[in-house]
Amino acid sequence: MTHPTAVDFELRIAMPATLRAAEEFLADFRERSRALLDRVNSFAAELLVREALTNAVVHGCHADPAKQVRCRMRLNGGRLLFAVEDDGDGFDWRAACARPANFAKCSGRGLGILRLYANRVRYNAAGNGVTFIKRFGEGTQRC
């Protein structure tokens, strides 16, 4: 169950493209969202944020601390809006969205997880930025 207010949680941050920085961000997100979301919705929200951040750090910036990952997030009412952009070259998201996700593999599941858990997923033209919306209690929409 969510508890709607005007804006429950909003954040803009730029961080070095490292897994440590992503984990610190996720710890802060987990702590702040705990009071706003029930257990099931909290899991879905953190999974989406984790996948988007990990893709930006690992695939977009190759975990290069000289590069940056920028995030914008708003959690309010029953909706999470999350946007992440990295300093990487981007990728062909159209081709990636056309392929089915192989959830049996250890990597390469991030886009499938975004498509499965988010209601809406949009990539920028360069392929180095993604925005998703998660409306808690609703179905999903493919990219």
In brief:
The protein has 143 residues and is an alpha+beta fold. It is 36% helix and 25% strand.
Question: What are the key terms here?
Answer:
143 residues; alpha+beta; five-stranded antiparallel beta sheet; 5 strands; 36% helix; 25% strand
| Separate helix tally | 4
Q: In which order are the strands of the major sheet placed?
A: 1-2-3-5-4
Could you tell me the number of beta strands? 5
Morphology:
globular
Mean pLDDT: 87
CATH architect. name: 2-Layer Sandwich
Please report the first level of CATH classification, the CATH class.
Alpha Beta
Distance between the termini: 27 Å
CATH topology: Heat Shock Protein 90
Q: Unreliable segments (pLDDT under 50, ≥5 consecutive)? A: 1-6
Radius of gyration based on Cα positions:
14 Å
- Within CATH, the superfamily carries the name Histidine kinase-like ATPase, C-terminal domain
Beta-strand fraction estimate: 25-35%
Instruction: Give, in order, the helices and strands.
Output: EHHEEHHEE
Number of domains: 1
Major β-sheet annotation: 5 strands, antiparallel
Please state the structural category. Answer: alpha+beta
Helix content: 25-40%
